[in-house]
Amino acid sequence: MPAKSRYYNMRKILVIILAVFVLINCKTKPPAPEAEPEAAIEIKEPGFEVISIYIIQADIVVTEFEAVIRVDNPNNFSMELSSIAYELFGNGRFWADGKVKGILIIPANSSSETNFRFEMNFINMNRPLLDDVINMRRVNYRFKGDAEVKPDIHKVDAFNVDFDCTGYSEVKRKAEKK
After folding, report:
1. Which domains does the chain have, with CATH numbers?
2. 8 A C-beta contact, residue 143 and residue 96
3. What does the pLDDT look like over 26-84, one tens digit per residue?
4. How far is CA 9 from CA 14, 23, 24, 40, 108, in A?
5. Nearest to 78 by CA among 106, 99, 57
6. Which of 24, 106, 130, 132 has the greatest CB tally within 10 Å of its CB?
Protein backbone atom coordinates (compact mmCIF):
# COMPACT_ATOMS: atom_id res chain seq x y z
CA MET A 1 0.00 0.00 0.00
CA PRO A 2 1.35 3.38 -0.83
CA ALA A 3 2.23 5.66 2.11
CA LYS A 4 -0.31 8.25 1.11
CA SER A 5 -3.11 5.70 1.12
CA ARG A 6 -1.98 4.32 4.49
CA TYR A 7 -1.94 7.83 5.93
CA TYR A 8 -5.40 8.48 4.51
CA ASN A 9 -6.79 5.21 5.99
CA MET A 10 -5.14 5.94 9.34
CA ARG A 11 -6.66 9.41 9.35
CA LYS A 12 -10.05 7.94 8.47
CA ILE A 13 -9.80 5.46 11.36
CA LEU A 14 -8.79 8.21 13.80
CA VAL A 15 -11.77 10.35 12.73
CA ILE A 16 -14.13 7.41 13.23
CA ILE A 17 -12.61 6.62 16.66
CA LEU A 18 -12.85 10.29 17.64
CA ALA A 19 -16.49 10.43 16.46
CA VAL A 20 -17.33 7.29 18.46
CA PHE A 21 -15.53 8.69 21.52
CA VAL A 22 -17.44 12.00 21.23
CA LEU A 23 -20.77 10.21 20.84
CA ILE A 24 -20.12 8.01 23.86
CA ASN A 25 -19.01 10.87 26.11
CA CYS A 26 -21.50 13.50 24.97
CA LYS A 27 -24.67 11.98 26.32
CA THR A 28 -27.68 14.15 26.88
CA LYS A 29 -28.08 15.45 30.41
CA PRO A 30 -30.15 13.20 32.59
CA PRO A 31 -33.58 14.63 33.27
CA ALA A 32 -33.81 16.74 36.40
CA PRO A 33 -35.27 14.80 39.26
CA GLU A 34 -39.00 15.30 39.40
CA ALA A 35 -40.20 17.46 42.23
CA GLU A 36 -41.95 15.36 44.78
CA PRO A 37 -45.65 16.06 44.74
CA GLU A 38 -46.84 17.90 47.81
CA ALA A 39 -48.45 15.59 50.27
CA ALA A 40 -52.20 15.89 50.30
CA ILE A 41 -53.30 17.89 53.30
CA GLU A 42 -56.34 16.54 55.07
CA ILE A 43 -58.38 19.41 56.43
CA LYS A 44 -61.03 18.53 58.98
CA GLU A 45 -63.99 20.85 59.38
CA PRO A 46 -64.28 22.78 62.65
CA GLY A 47 -67.10 21.99 65.07
CA PHE A 48 -69.54 24.56 66.50
CA GLU A 49 -71.43 24.62 69.80
CA VAL A 50 -73.51 27.22 71.64
CA ILE A 51 -72.03 27.49 75.14
CA SER A 52 -74.45 30.01 76.66
CA ILE A 53 -77.04 32.64 75.90
CA TYR A 54 -77.06 35.81 78.01
CA ILE A 55 -79.71 38.49 78.38
CA ILE A 56 -77.90 41.80 77.91
CA GLN A 57 -80.81 44.23 78.10
CA ALA A 58 -84.52 43.51 78.48
CA ASP A 59 -87.07 46.06 77.34
CA ILE A 60 -90.84 45.84 77.10
CA VAL A 61 -90.88 44.50 73.53
CA VAL A 62 -87.28 43.82 72.46
CA THR A 63 -84.58 42.00 74.40
CA GLU A 64 -80.92 42.01 73.42
CA PHE A 65 -78.99 38.77 73.85
CA GLU A 66 -75.41 37.61 73.55
CA ALA A 67 -74.65 34.07 72.41
CA VAL A 68 -71.28 32.52 73.21
CA ILE A 69 -70.15 29.87 70.75
CA ARG A 70 -67.20 27.54 70.87
CA VAL A 71 -65.39 26.52 67.70
CA ASP A 72 -63.27 23.35 67.84
CA ASN A 73 -60.30 22.97 65.48
CA PRO A 74 -59.34 19.27 65.07
CA ASN A 75 -56.40 20.09 62.73
CA ASN A 76 -52.62 20.31 63.29
CA PHE A 77 -52.60 23.94 62.14
CA SER A 78 -54.46 27.05 63.24
CA MET A 79 -57.51 28.35 61.40
CA GLU A 80 -59.12 31.75 61.09
CA LEU A 81 -62.89 31.98 61.27
CA SER A 82 -63.31 34.93 58.86
CA SER A 83 -67.08 35.26 58.81
CA ILE A 84 -70.20 33.47 59.86
CA ALA A 85 -73.77 33.74 58.60
CA TYR A 86 -76.15 32.08 61.04
CA GLU A 87 -79.72 31.31 62.01
CA LEU A 88 -80.58 30.61 65.62
CA PHE A 89 -83.73 28.77 66.66
CA GLY A 90 -85.10 28.37 70.18
CA ASN A 91 -87.50 25.56 71.08
CA GLY A 92 -88.03 24.88 67.37
CA ARG A 93 -88.91 28.50 66.48
CA PHE A 94 -86.88 31.06 64.61
CA TRP A 95 -85.10 33.32 67.07
CA ALA A 96 -82.48 35.37 65.21
CA ASP A 97 -80.16 35.51 62.25
CA GLY A 98 -77.21 37.59 61.18
CA LYS A 99 -73.71 37.76 59.76
CA VAL A 100 -70.52 38.49 61.66
CA LYS A 101 -67.06 39.13 60.15
CA GLY A 102 -63.50 38.95 61.49
CA ILE A 103 -64.38 36.59 64.27
CA LEU A 104 -61.39 34.68 65.70
CA ILE A 105 -58.29 32.51 65.33
CA ILE A 106 -58.56 28.92 66.53
CA PRO A 107 -55.20 27.35 67.50
CA ALA A 108 -54.21 23.91 66.23
CA ASN A 109 -55.95 21.01 68.02
CA SER A 110 -57.77 23.44 70.27
CA SER A 111 -60.94 25.48 70.76
CA SER A 112 -61.77 29.17 70.91
CA GLU A 113 -64.87 31.01 72.01
CA THR A 114 -66.49 34.08 70.54
CA ASN A 115 -69.74 35.89 71.04
CA PHE A 116 -72.28 37.79 69.00
CA ARG A 117 -75.36 39.79 69.84
CA PHE A 118 -78.89 39.41 68.57
CA GLU A 119 -82.37 40.64 69.47
CA MET A 120 -85.67 38.97 70.18
CA ASN A 121 -88.93 40.77 69.57
CA PHE A 122 -91.49 39.36 72.03
CA ILE A 123 -94.38 40.24 69.71
CA ASN A 124 -93.05 37.76 67.12
CA MET A 125 -92.16 34.96 69.57
CA ASN A 126 -94.23 31.99 70.59
CA ARG A 127 -95.30 31.83 74.22
CA PRO A 128 -93.22 28.77 75.35
CA LEU A 129 -89.95 30.36 74.17
CA LEU A 130 -90.92 33.66 75.78
CA ASP A 131 -91.69 31.88 79.08
CA ASP A 132 -88.35 30.00 79.00
CA VAL A 133 -86.44 33.23 78.38
CA ILE A 134 -88.31 35.23 81.04
CA ASN A 135 -87.79 32.45 83.60
CA MET A 136 -84.16 31.91 82.47
CA ARG A 137 -84.66 28.24 81.79
CA ARG A 138 -82.76 26.01 79.43
CA VAL A 139 -83.62 26.56 75.79
CA ASN A 140 -83.46 23.86 73.15
CA TYR A 141 -81.45 25.60 70.42
CA ARG A 142 -80.54 24.93 66.83
CA PHE A 143 -77.61 26.92 65.48
CA LYS A 144 -77.01 26.57 61.76
CA GLY A 145 -75.34 28.48 59.00
CA ASP A 146 -72.24 28.92 56.91
CA ALA A 147 -68.76 29.91 58.07
CA GLU A 148 -65.73 31.00 56.03
CA VAL A 149 -62.57 29.34 57.34
CA LYS A 150 -58.97 30.09 56.33
CA PRO A 151 -56.39 27.43 57.30
CA ASP A 152 -52.98 28.80 58.29
CA ILE A 153 -51.26 26.80 55.52
CA HIS A 154 -49.32 28.27 52.62
CA LYS A 155 -51.20 28.03 49.30
CA VAL A 156 -54.47 26.83 50.86
CA ASP A 157 -57.41 29.13 50.20
CA ALA A 158 -60.30 29.92 52.48
CA PHE A 159 -63.30 27.62 52.20
CA ASN A 160 -66.88 27.56 53.45
CA VAL A 161 -68.19 25.15 56.05
CA ASP A 162 -71.88 24.47 56.64
CA PHE A 163 -72.75 23.79 60.26
CA ASP A 164 -75.91 22.68 62.01
CA CYS A 165 -75.77 21.95 65.73
CA THR A 166 -78.41 21.46 68.37
CA GLY A 167 -78.43 21.27 72.12
CA TYR A 168 -79.60 22.96 75.29
CA SER A 169 -78.33 26.20 76.69
CA GLU A 170 -79.08 28.07 79.88
CA VAL A 171 -80.45 31.58 79.50
CA LYS A 172 -78.64 33.80 82.00
CA ARG A 173 -78.48 37.47 82.85
CA LYS A 174 -75.05 38.84 82.00
CA ALA A 175 -73.29 40.46 84.94
CA GLU A 176 -72.90 44.19 84.47
CA LYS A 177 -69.38 45.57 84.46
CA LYS A 178 -68.67 48.01 87.28
Report:
1. 47-173 (2.60.40.1820)
2. no
3. 555 556 666 555 567 788 999 998 888 888 887 777 888 888 999 999 999 999 999 99
4. 9, 21, 22, 64, 79
5. 106
6. 106
